[in-house]
Specification:
The complex is a heterodimer of chains A (458) and B (552).
Chain A (H helix, E strand, L loop, with lengths): L16 E2 L6 H9 L5 E6 L2 H15 L6 E2 L4 H6 L2 H14 L4 E6 L1 H6 L3 H10 L8 E5 L8 H16 L7 E7 L5 H14 L3 E3 L25 H6 L3 E7 L1 H15 L3 E4 L5 H15 L5 H21 L3 E5 L2 H13 L3 E6 L5 H10 L8 E3 L4 H10 L4 E4 L4 H7 L3 E3 L17 H23 L10
Parallel strand pairs in A: 2-3, 2-4, 4-5, 6-7, 6-8, 8-9, 10-11, 10-13, 11-12, 13-14
Helix pairs in contact in A: 1-2, 1-7, 4-6, 7-10, 12-17, 13-14
Chain B lengths: L5 H4 L8 H9 L4 H10 E3 L28 H9 L6 E6 L2 H6 L23 E2 L4 H6 L2 H15 L3 E6 L1 H6 L3 H12 L3 E5 L9 H15 L13 E7 L5 H12 L2 E7 L4 H6 L5 E4 L2 H15 L3 E3 L5 H15 L2 H29 L3 E5 L4 H11 L3 E6 L5 H5 L11 H4 L19 H9 L19 E3 L4 H11 L3 E4 L1 H9 L4 E3 L11 H16 L10 H4 L11
Helix pairs in contact in B: 2-20, 4-10, 7-9, 10-13, 11-22, 14-15, 14-22, 15-22
Classes of the chains: A alpha/beta (458), B alpha/beta (552).
């Protein structure tokens, strides 16, 4: 057994996290910043942070992930990192020539208390920021929240630094897609396009972290929201933010700063959440939903009716990020599946309340923990086994030990491809999730079926 | 630029002037950066006596210049202590550091049985919150140790300090001492491996090794059976390398007491001072442990290399030579003779496909050197190489040790002062023995470094930057580059295959004879993959317009 030391009995732990279901803020900020066109994320801390974040993002996306660092040494940690950041800004603009540097802090620079806006102002005064180029920042202390918080903070930083109101409202909706895959961002844009709604999406990592192989490397790939678009976001008629935790803060900041009203929705994963997204967008923009979308929706409903027999009453354990888990749990409940063990590492009381509300009619006790970890999840399912696991790659150890099928979903996925190319949002994404869940369940049924009941037609 | 672009000119690479390339690499840097990098980029020139030019290495990374390097914590917790299966390694800090170092280096391990301790699949962290940053984290750390002990009853618990821990002043060593005493049957020790210390992972290796040497080595005096007892230092069992080396040791009848630290256990470390010879694989990460073990326990060391079939054979012969035993030598020859036909068969096959192709290696503290042998065996030349975190002796050989200046960053990393152990010191070799070995060509405590074995005129680049990597690709269009995961896809997006030599992508083992076969095949697959011919669509190759809707 690979997790041979995990006992069935749960003893409450107050200090030791084992097998976390989250990671730290800066990596989320780095991911978000890659969704700005021509942007080089910059980690203000010691160089291990950016090395770890780049490595993890690279392993997940199998794409170049470029970023820079302030490379703190002992001296910088004592005297502050101003000199390092000024030098970094100068070097980055000289050598790599990005349009934007997006600085995020780390536990190190936060503990020291470096004042990033002051350092950026100094860099500007000293002429280290070429005309027309930008340096933005977000505070992302690793000891608060999680990678999701870091993502949210950097998206908010985009609003704080770059969104401007030009005094009138333009017929256009801002879309904040949440901490989702590049292909999900693409799919959300496609759906808005099908509806005929002009939009600006930020951040947008499509064509950045799922860029084509052309034989020519470009440090700044063609994708990403441009600085001009981010400025215009301040004059859009409204904002639809997907994922309360990852997108809420930026949407509210834009409302405060530029008076752009917002609707904050769940991530459009599964039937109901996608319905809510389409319906909201339709009403805001005053458009009629075209038949093409009705067809997509109908297909998803059709497959649910076709395959309901395999989903009904199956017990599922989930680990992942709050925004994803809320929509996914709803989707599973809508399939008449029983999500019974749910952990996220990201703190937040609302999460537990939402999950309890969504699962209130599940005819089985439901375990949910916002500050949980995968060790706890494993203990729960040792007592109350499940038919399916859904979550990131780390769950494969539990899946193997307990012999439970695993559907990879979320971040990070280090051992498979596809997650950055095939969306799980929208109706088409729902279809893909159904396909993956069904494959996992039926492959297992085939594997375990006695010869006499091994069947061709299922 | 065009003056040195081989592809455009169709000029053979040999004609590319390395000094010109160096100028090109520095051309875009601000003056201060260029001045510093100029000392870290050297055109190799090997004198008849093996002397090579001096290179500036183990110096600070320049802020804003995208480097391959990681931090001290990564070197300590990730690299050195990561591959040991039965120590509960608790990261004291916010969650990220523990998370990123959780199973990501592909260290494999094989516990002796289903009940044996194996914590490598687990990640332990105090998940520090702002409350601890403000009020201190020692209380939470103490509680975390207690919880880990209550759950797992491990033989040992290691504590790893992350950046903020050093700043807020948590005394991890005091907590370790206190808890060790409290728990009674569990060795608790701590590492001050905050990420800001030192200039690279190398400092972390040092801190980790010092800690293990201080707190673990020498605790178990049991003398195991075996005529030829050895330790393997600086082998981390990536992709199963240690398993292949262990197979060979078994076959030649050599007893492996401990590996530092691939496929290792706490107990092996504790007993390692009973070995009679230390073998060093990765000189950078661990040569000082061999030195300390020699001083304290009297164990000599030799440099070995199990990367490459020829190097493996040579290293096995060196071990047999050290023990001066005819039977052992005969067994070694037998094993080499048994293994080589399979190697030769694949080597010939692969060489036919790869001969004349060119590689660049920018990785690690020893791999950029070791892997050149494997490439040579299939007829491939290494035209540029460099390390990520090595020191001058890894480049220029140990002959330069006396002339290495200790700067402020290195001074921050503790050097242990070691003396012969009053009870355990036992010199394994008498002076005449040393002389005899020298005459037989067995060099003790020696390492010539990478540069002496590279062609004059090749480029040596320490701590290469992303910008320099891109320039090199543009100028040389190498057939393959070896580096790490962060570099992989930028290189491949340029149409050049890239092999990870930290974690081997998903491959391995590459050590020993079987490893050599795996590597030959892997490189053949990579440099000759069909996919590189498909980068352009037919209409991009021939974009001429045709008439509309005409079939002919």
């Amino acid at each position: 057994m690979l997790l041979r030391h995990t006992p069935k009995e749960v003893k409450e732990r107050t200090a030791l996290t084992i097998n976390p279901a989250k990671t730290c803020q800066p990596i989320g900020a780095m991911y978000a910043a890659l969704g700005i066109h021509g942007c080089l994320p910059h980690s203000h801390g010691s160089q291990g942070c950016y090395a770890y974040h780049r490595s993890t993002l690279t392993r997940h996306y199998k794409e170049p992930v470029m970023a820079a660092t302030s490379s703190f040494t002992e001296g910088a940690s004592v005297f502050g990192g101003q000199a390092n950041l000024l030098q970094a800004i100068n070097n980055i603009f000289s050598v790599y020539e990005p349009e934007v540097i997006a600085v995020h802090t780390t536990c190190l620079s936060e503990t020291i208390g470096d004042d990033i806006p002051q350092i950026i102002a100094k860099a500007r005064d000293e002429g280290k920021i070429p005309p027309g180029r930008h340096v933005i920042h977000a505070n992302t202390p690793s000891y608060v929240g999680s990678h999701v918080t870091g993502f949210a903070n950097m998206v908010k930083g985009m609003v704080d630094y770059l969104a401007k109101s030009n005094g009138h409202k333009e017929n256009r909706v801002n879309l904040i897609p949440g901490y989702v895959e590049p292909c999900d961002m693409e799919e959300i844009k496609r759906l808005a396009g099908e509806l005929g709604v002009p939009h600006i999406m930020f951040p947008d990592t499509s064509n950045v972290l799922n860029a084509p192989q052309t034989g020519r490397y470009h440090m700044f790939p063609p994708g990403g929201v441009t600085v001009e678009e981010l400025a215009l976001a301040g004059s859009s008629v409204g904002t639809v933010a997907l994922g309360r935790m990852a997108s809420g803060p930026a949407a509210r900041a834009l409302d405060t700063k530029c008076k752009v009203p917002c609707e904050i929705l769940d991530l459009p994963i599964g039937l109901k959440a996608t319905d809510a997204f389409i319906d909201t967008l339709r009403q805001i923009a005053g458009v009629t939903v075209p038949d093409s979308i009705n067809i997509e929706r109908g297909r998803l409903v059709d497959v649910i009716t076709d395959m309901h027999q395999y989903f009904f009453g199956r017990k599922v354990a989930l680990a992942g990020d709050p925004d994803q888990l809320i929509s996914l749990t709803q989707f599973l409940v809508d399939l008449d599946m029983w999500p019974i063990h749910i952990v996220t590492g990201t703190p937040g009381k609302k999460f537990e309340t939402r999950i309890k509300e969504i699962t209130k009619d599940v005819p089985h006790p439901v375990n949910v923990r916002a500050t949980g970890d995968m060790f706890l999840l494993h203990q729960w399912l040792k007592s109350e086994p499940v038919d399916l696991l859904m979550g990131n790659t780390y769950l494969k150890y539990i899946a193997r030990d307990e012999d439970i099928p695993l559907v990879r979903f979320g971040f990070p996925i280090l051992d498979r491809v596809g997650h950055s190319y095939f969306p799980t949002v929208g109706y088409r994404g729902g279809l893909r999730l159904l396909e993956k869940i069904l494959d996992a369940i039926l492959d297992r049924q085939d594997r375990d079926a006695p010869e006499e009941s091994f069947e061709l037609v299922m | 630029m065009a003056t040195v672009n081989a592809e455009e000119l169709g000029a053979p690479v040999i004609d590319i002037n390395a000094e010109e390339v160096k100028k090109e690499l520095l051309s875009k840097y601000p003056t201060k950066v260029a001045r510093k990098r100029a000392k870290q980029i050297v055109v190799n020139e090997v004198a008849p006596d093996g002397a090579v030019p001096e290179i500036a290495v183990n110096v600070r990374t320049i802020p804003g210049i995208i480097s391959q390097r990681g931090c001290t914590y990564a070197g300590c917790k990730g690299v050195v202590l990561g591959p040991t299966r039965d120590i509960v390694n608790i990261t004291h800090g916010p969650i990220g550091c523990g998370f990123y170092s959780w199973l990501t280096r592909r260290n494999q391990t094989k516990p002796p049985g289903p009940e044996a301790h194996n914590f490598m699949t687990y990640c332990f962290s105090t998940d520090m919150q702002d409350e601890q940053i403000i009020f201190g984290g020692e209380k939470k750390l103490r509680q975390a140790i207690q919880e880990a002990y209550d759950l797992f009853h491990p033989k040992a618990i290691g504590l790893f300090a992350t950046c903020p821990v050093g700043l807020i002043g948590d005394d991890v060593h005091a907590v370790a001492r206190e808890m060790k005493e409290k728990l009674g049957d569990c060795n608790v020790f701590a590492f001050s491996c905050e990420g800001y210390k030192g200039v690279s992972q190398s400092a972390g290796h040092h801190i980790a090794n010092n800690g293990i040497f201080t707190h673990v080595v020498g605790l178990d005096d049991t003398v195991k059976e075996g005529e030829f007892k050895i330790n393997m230092l600086g082998e981390y069992n990536i992709g199963g390398d240690a398993f292949e080396i262990e197979r060979l040791f078994d076959d030649i009848g050599v007893t492996l007491i401990s590996t530092f630290s691939g496929n290792s256990s706490y107990e092996y470390f504790a007993n390692s001072h009973t070995a009679d010879l230390n073998l060093i694989m990765c000189h950078r990460s661990i040569n000082y442990v061999a030195e300390m073990m020699e001083t304290k326990f009297g164990i000599p060391w030799i440099k070995v290399n199990f990367i490459g079939a020829g190097a493996t054979a040579k290293s096995l012969r060196k071990i047999a030579g050290y023990f001066e035993n005819k039977e052992l030598s005969a067994l070694v020859e037998e094993v080499i003779a048994r293994e080589m036909p399979a190697v030769e068969k694949v080597r010939e096959e692969v060489k036919a496909n790869c001969e004349g192709k060119r590689a660049m290696l920018f990785v690690g503290g020893s791999r950029a050197h070791h892997y050149q042998e494997l490439f040579q065996e299939i007829g491939m030349e290494t035209i540029a190489a460099g390390y990520e975190f090595a020191h001058r002796d890894d480049y220029e050989g140990r002959r330069v040790l006396p002339s290495i200046k200790v700067d402020a960053d290195s001074r921050n990393i503790e050097e242990l002062h070691v003396e012969p152990d009053p009870e355990r010191y036992r010199p394994r070799l008498a002076p005449e023995g040393i002389e005899r070995l020298a005459k037989a060509g067995i060099e003790l405590s020696g390492y010539e470094g990478m540069m002496a074995e590279m062609a004059s005129g090749s480029l040596i680049i320490d701590d290469i930057s992303q910008f320099e990597t891109e320039k090199l690709i543009e100028i040389y269009r190498p057939d393959i580059i070896c580096a790490g995961i962060k570099e992989k896809y930028a290189i491949q997006k340029s149409g050049v295959p890239m092999k990870q030599l930290h974690s081997y992508d998903s491959g391995g083992p590459y050590a020993g004879f079987k490893g050599a076969i795996n590597f030959y095949r892997e490189i053949d697959r990579m440099v000759n993959s069909k996919v590189w011919k498909y980068l352009k669509a037919p209409w991009q190759e021939h974009p001429e317009l045709a008439a509309k809707y005409v079939w002919e």
